[in-house]
Amino acid sequence: MYVTSVDSRVYQLSDLNLDGRAELQTTFAAGYSLPLGITVHLPTGEVYVSHQGAVTILTDIDGDGKADRDRVFVDNLPTDRHQNDNLKFGPDGWLYMGLGSTCDACTEFDARSASILRFNIESGASEIYASGLRNPYDIAFHPVTGELFSTDNGRDDLGMGIPSEELNQIVQGGNYGFPKCWDAQDQPGCENTIPAVAFFESHSSANGLDFFIGERFPSEYRGNAFVSIFGSWLKAGVQTGIQRVILTQDGAGYTGSTTWFVRFPEGVMPLPLLFGPDEALYVGDYINSVIYRISYGAP
Fold first, then answer.
1. How many domains does the chain have?
2. pLDDT at 299
3. What is the CATH number of the domain that holds 193?
4. Is-contact 97 86, C-beta < 8 A?
5. Among 211, 225, 233, 297, which is least packed by CB within 10 angstroms?
6. 293, 275 Cβ separation under 8 angstroms
7. 65 with 5: CB under 8 angstroms?
8. Given strand 46-51, what is the order of strands in its sheet?
9. Around 11, how many Cα atoms within 13 Å sit in the side-chain half-sphere?
10. Distances (CA, A) of 215 to 64, 91, 227, 245, 297
11. Are 95 and 48 in contact (CB under 8 A)?
12. Does 160 reside within a domain?
C-alpha cells in the first residue's frame, strides 16, 4: 500500500504475514508539499503523486522499495484555498484528477480551477473534463459501468445550513454549478447545470470515495458508493464516519440514498478511503495518523 502524508512523504506499507496489519513501513519518497493524491499505473508500476500544484511520477527502478527516479508530469496548476486532489486512471487509460477552487466562492481566472481534469499519459495532452466543482476531493469509476463519480464540498459563506456536500455523477462537458448553484440548483441561471445524485450534511466535508463490488461484504453492499465524512472546522457537532450511498438508475443518471456504514467517535476524522484487493475497506484518519482496516469475517 502506498500512502501520502502531510509530512511531505510517500510511505510504502507491507503486510508481510497477511494478518491484515502492516508490519513494515518504509519511506518510498519525500519532499512533496501537501500530497493529497496517489495512484499506481499498473502496466508500468509507476506511482503518480498529486501534490500542491503538480503531479510527479515516481519509479522504483531496482525494486528496493524506494523511488530511484522522479519526474514532473504536470506543474503550474492553480492553487490557493484548495489545490489538486486525488487522481485515478480511468477505463480509457487516461489519468483523471480533481482540482479545487482557489477561493471559497468566486469567479475563477483559470478555467482549470474547480474542475476535473484528465491527462493522456502517452502524449501529454490534457483537457478539462467537467467544471463547476468547488473541491472534488476524490473520484471513482463505477466498477461495472465505468461511469465517473466525484465527491464535492460546498461554499462556506451561506451559513451553517447550506449548501449540502455532494456525490456527483460526472459526465464529460458537464457543469456542476459552482459558485452560483447548489443543492436543488434552482437558483436563477442554473438551468444548464447538473445537480448531485446524493447529498450529505452541510459543511461535513465529504471526501474519500470508492465502490464495493466484491464478495466479502454483505451482498446488499455490492455496487454501493462509500464516502468518508471528515467533519468540520466551522460547524459544531458534525458526525464523522463512512456513509454508504445506494444508487438507483434514473434514466441516463442516478438518484442516491444515504445511510451510515460507520459512525466514528469524536476525535476521528477520516479523509481517504479505498477498497483493497482483499476486499477490506482501508480508511485514513487525518487526526490520529493511522489507517483503519474494516473487513467482514477473518482477515
1. 1
2. 64
3. 2.120.10.30
4. yes
5. 297
6. no
7. no
8. 37-41, 46-51, 54-59, 69-74
9. 17
10. 33, 22, 19, 18, 12
11. yes
12. yes
Q: Is 127 among the domain residues?
A: yes
Q: What is the pLDDT along the chain (299 residues), one digit of tens a residue?
A: 999 999 999 999 999 998 999 999 999 999 999 999 999 999 999 999 999 999 999 999 999 999 999 999 999 999 999 999 999 999 999 999 999 999 999 999 999 999 999 999 999 999 999 999 999 999 999 999 999 999 999 999 999 999 999 999 999 999 999 999 999 999 999 999 999 999 999 999 999 999 999 999 999 999 999 999 999 999 999 999 999 999 999 888 899 999 999 999 999 999 999 999 999 999 999 999 999 999 998 66
Are 4 and 23 spatial neighbours (Cβ–Cβ below 8 Å)? Answer: no
Can you give the residue range of the structural domain that contains 96? 77-294
5-to-31, 32, 290 alpha-carbon distances in Å? 11, 9, 11
Amino acid, res. 130: A
18 assigned to some structural domain: no
- The number of beta carbons lying within 10 Å of the beta carbon of residue 80 is 12
Closest to 152 measured CA to CA, from 210, 198, 90: 198
Query: In 5-99, where do the E strands start and end?
Result: 9-14, 24-30, 37-41, 46-51, 54-59, 69-74, 84-89, 95-99
- Whose grid coordinates read 502492516? 22
The residue among 165, 134, 133, 167 whose CA lies nearest residue 150 is: 167
**CA 159 to CA 55: how far, in whole Å?**
34
Strands 46-51 and 54-59: antiparallel
In a domain, 39, yes or no: no
One-letter amino acid for residue 276 of the chain: G
What lies within 8 Å, CB to CB, of 91 at 6+ separation is 141, 146
Residue 185 and residue 187: Cα distance in Å, rounded?
Answer: 6
